[in-house]
């Protein structure tokens, strides 16, 4: 008997052995792979999680969760057990290494630690926009930059009118300069396809540039005394990461783990630790391993191989061939995407649905019972309120109008001034970043901080409603015009 015949006999005997399952029923050995790799098309967990996934995929969902957390914070701190709110965020968390003690309050871990991840995502978005997005075209980007500068300068001037240098509230001048990306894009998402995509890209670009401006303000004006030794170590870590980038190292862990160490040294240097997010994002590779033509060739060849698989060959053999094809496709998809894109895709839900809402919950607490006419600063309130509500749209429109009158730029055909007025008001929603800067500016004065939070909250609510109504009015005018044209 040949070896192949012996092997066939042994195989038939082995796979013909019968076992008993947990119910006592006899099963063939050959049936085991089928049971292991059985298809479960609609398990209970999918029916539970699927509605949540659909909710998360909606653009406006993140802003809704943020607003819910803000509302919870406002209610929580004004209930009879208000101490539970403040006590929670003042819990100290940290570690000891020998004689070195590093403990911070939970509020500080959120504002200095988790928000560094938020700024890291902002940095990734900015880098992507500069490479392949709305800021890639210098001419188009210049309009967003000019509009964003106008939306920062005029709110600053309005705030300083009410709080001139030397006054008690002067340190809060950076509060009305920023735009909340999550809520502003959430408001715009309510209009779905009724506003041009160009308008959404413009608001996104302006909001990102606003946040970069806010980060520079934080780094320069709201940082503590500089420790040059820790700053030098931070620069050395950045230099090493830059070398990794130039060498073509693409593993994100190689950047993230030193990035955490970088955060520690930046924090210890006296510069605000959230700047780490922007610095690290600038180092993350944004290059592909293969170009589009190579990716097309790989996927076409793999899909052809899949189409040629003979399903009659047996489940095990078919499954093995499918698995090999899947791995080939995975390698193609990994190599066509940049590490920057992969990181952004990984972080976006964590930031939008956890970090920003948690920040909103921890920083929205305004104890209205503790406020009095003596502790309430009307000048701080008015500077923030009018800076966000009036300064933002007026500054953006003024600078944009003046720039459009130069030979460098002409307004896009699909965008008009009524739309720009609408997104100007929406850009006046400064909740996340404005509260962040307020916490830095008035960290030692609770009454001024509460006053600032009230100004931010009221201005953001009115700005959101105003922008929404203006864009709705524009849509109605467009629909009316289209209807008249069709009837004529």
Structural notes for this entry:
There is one protein chain. The protein is mainly alpha-helical and 488 residues long. The chain folds into two domains: 62-223 and 272-287 and 338-487, Na+/H+ antiporter like domain (Na+/H+ antiporter like fold, Up-down Bundle); 292-334. Helix content is 70%, strand content 4%. It has 19 helices and four strands. The protein has helices at 3-15, 32-36, 44-56, 61-77, 83-89, 106-132, 138-162, 181-189, 197-221, 228-247, 252-269, 275-283, 292-307, 315-336, 339-363, 378-404, 417-426, 431-441, 446-487, and strands spanning 18-20, 26-28, 92-97, 100-105. The strands form two sheets. The chain has a two-stranded antiparallel ribbon with strand order 1-2. Strands 3-4 form a two-stranded antiparallel ribbon. β3 and β4 form a beta hairpin. α6 (106-132) runs parallel beside α12 (275-283). The longest helix has 42 residues, at 446-487. The radius of gyration is 28 Å and the shape is globular. The model is unreliable at 2-23 and 52-59 (pLDDT under 50).
Portion of residues in helices? 55-70%
Radius of gyration: 28 Å
Portion in beta strands: under 5%
Name the CATH class of the largest domain.
Answer: Mainly Alpha
The backbone outline, from C-alpha atoms, is globular
Which strands sit side by side, in order, in the main sheet?
1-2
Could you give the order of the helices and strands? HEEHHHHEEHHHHHHHHHHHHHH
Itemize the secondary structure elements and their pairings.
Elements: H1 3-15, E1 18-20, E2 26-28, H2 32-36, H3 44-56, H4 61-77, H5 83-89, E3 92-97, E4 100-105, H6 106-132, H7 138-162, H8 181-189, H9 197-221, H10 228-247, H11 252-269, H12 275-283, H13 292-307, H14 315-336, H15 339-363, H16 378-404, H17 417-426, H18 431-441, H19 446-487
Antiparallel strand pairs: 1-2, 3-4
């Amino acid at each position: 008997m040949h070896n192949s015949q012996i092997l066939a006999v042994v195989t038939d005997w082995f796979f013909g052995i019968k076992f008993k399952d947990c119910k006592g029923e006899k099963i063939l050995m050959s049936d085991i792979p089928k049971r292991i790799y059985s298809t479960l098309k609609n398990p209970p967990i999918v029916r539970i999680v699927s509605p949540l996934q659909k909710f998360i995929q909606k653009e406006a969902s993140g802003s809704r969760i943020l607003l819910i957390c803000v509302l919870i914070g406002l209610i929580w701190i004004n209930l009879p057990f208000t101490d539970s709110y403040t006590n929670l965020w003042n819990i100290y968390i940290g570690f000891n290494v020998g004689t070195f003690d590093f403990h911070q309050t939970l509020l500080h871990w959120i504002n200095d630690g988790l928000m560094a991840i938020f700024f890291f995502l902002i940095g990734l978005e900015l880098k992507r926009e500069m490479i392949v997005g709305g800021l890639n075209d210098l001419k188009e980007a210049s309009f967003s930059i000019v509009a964003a500068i106008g939306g920062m300068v005029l709110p600053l001037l309005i705030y300083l009118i009410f709080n001139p240098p030397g006054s008690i509230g002067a340190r809060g001048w950076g509060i009305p300069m920023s735009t909340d990306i999550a809520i502003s894009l959430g408001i715009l998402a309510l209009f779905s396809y009724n506003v041009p995509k160009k308008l959404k890209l413009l608001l996104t670009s302006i909001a990102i540039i606003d946040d970069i401006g806010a980060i520079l303000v934080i780094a320069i004006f709201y940082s503590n005394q500089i420790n040059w030794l820790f700053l030098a170590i931070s620069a050395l870590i950045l230099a090493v990461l830059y070398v990794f980038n130039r060498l073509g190292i693409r593993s994100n862990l190689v950047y993230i783990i030193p990035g955490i160490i970088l955060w520690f040294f930046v924090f210890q240097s006296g510069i605000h630790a959230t700047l780490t997010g922007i610095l690290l994002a600038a180092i993350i590779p944004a290059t592909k391993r293969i170009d589009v033509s190579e990716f097309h060739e790989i996927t076409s060849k793999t899909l052809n191989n899949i189409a040629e698989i003979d399903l009659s060959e047996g489940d095990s053999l078919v499954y093995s061939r499918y698995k090999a094809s899947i791995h080939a496709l995975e390698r193609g998809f990994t190599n066509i995407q940049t590490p920057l894109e992969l990181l952004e895709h990984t972080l976006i839900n964590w930031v939008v649905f956890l970090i920003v809402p948690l920040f909103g919950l921890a920083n929205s607490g305004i104890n209205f019972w503790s406020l009095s006419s003596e502790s309430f600063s009307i000048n701080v309130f008015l500077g923030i309120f009018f800076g966000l509500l009036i300064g933002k749209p007026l500054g953006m429109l003024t600078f944009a109008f003046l720039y459009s009158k130069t030979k460098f730029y002409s307004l896009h055909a699909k965008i008009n001034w009524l739309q720009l007025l609408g997104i100007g008001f929406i850009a006046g929603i400064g909740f996340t970043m404005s509260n962040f800067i307020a916490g830095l500016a008035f960290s030692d004065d609770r009454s001024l901080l509460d006053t600032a939070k009230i100004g931010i909250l009221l201005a953001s609510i009115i700005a959101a409603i105003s922008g929404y109504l203006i864009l709705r009015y524009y849509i109605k005018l467009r629909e009316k015009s289209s209807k008249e044209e069709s009837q004529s």
